[in-house]
């Protein structure tokens, strides 16, 4: 099932999705902090906290997608893509990270070295794990590399209509360099198509802030911002189609469009001098918070114990009622008559 979407500000949208991942059509708001959980659940991983969101269906539990691609576009109100598909409003758009999903993939498929790429070109922030280090070793990640890449012969400047954008403005070049990264990712991955057919799932997380900088520089009502929005929409659709085809239709491509995050991204840290929790933090001696894995663990242990108990009863009954002369080959072979025959 190919889902083409229109993207509005503060919306979670799906550009491409296989049949094994079902996104229900509806306007259910998605909490911004739970976006990583959607990526994890669609790939078949469990999450710590239950997510009562009807937008994601069960799908095929035994055939999960080989890749998840999540592109975050900052500073946009509306991107007009060819057709409108499934999209959901984001409630409380806060910064998020797919580190938990990357850690889950790396822990389960560590021996198979999956491709994990997290990239924010405007901030020169890159994180590669597994085979991504060899696949994307030639990928431009710093601002200087991105600028030099744009002026090479096979760059997007030779084929992309710039309209009101220019090559002499740093803000325009930053925006165009992010589009160049999208093209280079699919180009480099096409040289290693065998990685899209292995058993381990891959993860791509990209953050694009070039359109936001154009809005600050020229204004959101300017022709430059309108042209950049249309160019970005076309580039995202092309990028989604190419990634989807590279993984033989077994990849999820998603877009998160936000006008502005409500708060800055902060990672939880703990000081080595931090004191342990005192008894006064829980004065009422309350039980620990319910874990949604409890039902699964309880059923596994319960039915395993029942199966073992039944096995012991059946074996004991048969041993008690066994006739050594007929049911056991040991006693039968020691019978005198059989030995004479």
From TrEMBL:
Q: Where are the transmembrane segments?
A: 294-320
Predominant subcellular localization, coarse grouping? membrane
Q: Which GO terms describe its molecular function?
A: signaling receptor activity
Give compartment(s): Cell projection, Dendritic spine membrane; Cytoplasmic vesicle, Autophagosome membrane; Cytoplasmic vesicle, Clathrin-coated vesicle membrane; Cytoplasmic vesicle, Secretory vesicle, Synaptic vesicle membrane
Listed under GO biological process in this entry are: positive regulation of Wnt signaling pathway
Q: Which residues form the Renin receptor N-terminal domain?
A: 9-259
Report the membrane topology from the UniProt record: Single-pass type I membrane protein
**Domain Renin receptor-like C-terminal transmembrane spanning segment per the UniProt entry, residue ranges:** 267-341
Q: Which UniProt keywords apply?
A: Cell membrane, Cleavage on pair of basic residues, Endoplasmic reticulum, Membrane, Receptor, Signal, Transmembrane, Transmembrane helix
InterPro entries in UniProt: Renin_r_C, Renin_rcpt, RENR_N
> A Pfam family matched by this chain, by name?
Renin_r
Name a GO CC annotation attached to this entry.
dendritic spine membrane
Tree of life domain: Eukaryota
Q: How does it assemble?
A: Interacts with renin. Accessory component of the multisubunit proton-transporting vacuolar (V)-ATPase protein pump. Interacts (via N-terminus) with ATP6AP1 (via N-terminus). Interacts with ATP6V0D1; ATP6V0D1 is a V-ATPase complex subunit and the interaction promotes V-ATPase complex assembly. Interacts with TMEM9; TMEM9 is a V-ATPase assembly regulator and the interaction induces the interaction with ATP6V0D1. Interacts with VMA21 (via N-terminus); VMA21 is a V-ATPase accessory component.
Question: What is the annotated role of this protein in its UniProt record?
Answer: Multifunctional protein which functions as a renin, prorenin cellular receptor and is involved in the assembly of the lysosomal proton-transporting V-type ATPase (V-ATPase) and the acidification of the endo-lysosomal system. May mediate renin-dependent cellular responses by activating ERK1 and ERK2. By increasing the catalytic efficiency of renin in AGT/angiotensinogen conversion to angiotensin I, may also play a role in the renin-angiotensin system (RAS).
Q: What is this protein called?
A: Renin receptor
Q: What is the lineage of its organism?
A: Eukaryota, Metazoa, Chordata, Craniata, Vertebrata
């Amino acid at each position: 099932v190919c889902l083409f979407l229109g993207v509005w500000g503060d919306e979670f949208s799906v550009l491409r999705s296989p049949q094994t991942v079902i996104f229900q059509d509806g306007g259910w708001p998605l909490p911004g902090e739970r976006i990583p959980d959607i990526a994890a659940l669609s790939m078949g991983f469990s999450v710590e906290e239950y997510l009562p969101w009807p937008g994601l269906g069960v799908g095929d539990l035994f055939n999960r997608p080989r890749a998840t691609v999540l592109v975050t576009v900052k500073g946009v109100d509306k991107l007009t893509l060819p057709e409108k598909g499934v999209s959901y409003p984001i409630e409380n758009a806060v910064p998020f990270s797919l580190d938990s999903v990357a850690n889950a993939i790396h822990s389960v498929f560590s021996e198979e070295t999956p491709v994990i790429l997290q990239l924010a070109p405007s901030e020169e922030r890159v994180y590669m794990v597994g085979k991504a280090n060899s696949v994307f070793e030639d990928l431009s990640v710093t601002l200087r590399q991105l600028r030099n890449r744009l002026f090479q012969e096979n760059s997007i400047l030779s084929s992309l209509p710039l309209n009101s954008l220019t090559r002499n403005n740093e803000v325009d070049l930053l925006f165009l360099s992010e589009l160049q990264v999208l093209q280079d990712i699919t180009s480099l991955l096409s040289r290693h198509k065998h990685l899209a057919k292995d058993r381990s799932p891959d993860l791509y997380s990209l953050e694009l802030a070039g359109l936001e900088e154009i809005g600050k520089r020229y204004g959101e009502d300017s022709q430059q911002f309108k042209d950049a929005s249309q160019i970005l929409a076309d580039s995202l659709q092309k990028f989604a189609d190419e990634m989807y085809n590279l993984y033989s239709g077994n990849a999820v491509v998603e877009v998160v469009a936000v006008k502005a995050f409500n708060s800055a991204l902060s990672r939880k840290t703990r000081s080595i001098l931090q004191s342990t929790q005192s008894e006064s933090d829980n004065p009422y001696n309350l039980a620990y918070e319910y874990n949604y894995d409890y039902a699964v663990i309880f059923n596994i242990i319960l039915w395993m114990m029942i199966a073992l108990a039944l096995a012991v009863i059946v074996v004991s009954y048969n041993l008690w009622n066994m006739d050594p002369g007929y049911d056991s080959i040991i006693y039968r072979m020691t019978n005198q008559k059989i030995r004479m025959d």
